[in-house]
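Lecture 7 notes: from sequence to structure.
We start with the chain below.
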Amino acid sequence: MGDFRIGVRHRGRIVPAERGFGNDKPVHRREFPERLHDECGLGIMHGVQPTSGIRETVQDSQGDFCNKLKLPAMRKITLSEYNSIPKDYRGIWTVERWDLPNWAEIREKHMGKRTMMVYDKGTCLLVEGLGFEIVDDSIWKKADEVKKEIGSHFLKFYCEQGREPHYADCTIRWCDTLETEEVRIALAMDSDNEKDDEIFFYCDSLENLKSLADKGKEDFIIAGCIGFGIYEELLQTT
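Predicted structure tokens for the same chain:
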């Protein structure tokens, strides 16, 4: 009884993943033989352990080669990103595996869980809670909303102060962990200043600041704007 395996395309045919990856390409579910489909269309190879991960060949201290399961790190994906995956590559685990001696122990970790197929040195199936976590982003502000919020705070500051601000206090969201953090982003400040340690990022214009609300610019996005300030106010703080 081996580990969970997904077939990958290798020189024009389907082979188990542990046969090596090389230039293997992701396999569309329609390329799997019918006997490898579960009812959701996921290529489950029956008779093997349903554990998310891929196998790699390693050499032990005696010089013998053996297969070792390499589990992927827990990934985080937003609900909208998950729903955007083509239905052929995501689904719900519905297959009972009573042929496995430990199925009673691991059943709750698989049944009814969302799944998705990914390509990571081979095509593999990830199970929610084991290989990836879905974060609900339905209440998060959209990029256009964040840009509008930045513009609104900027206009308010300019009307009250009669001058343009030097920095913005913002909430950012890291693209990999999806965790948020409050930071200070400079607008019209030189990087060589007494408060440089308090500045997270430097922008050269308001439009440049707004662009950070879009994905793909940096390894973070601006998730919200708290307000603006001037450099002289920073000097008065301890």
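Points to note: The CA atoms of residues 117 and 221 lie 26 Å apart. The first strand starts at residue 8 and ends at 10.
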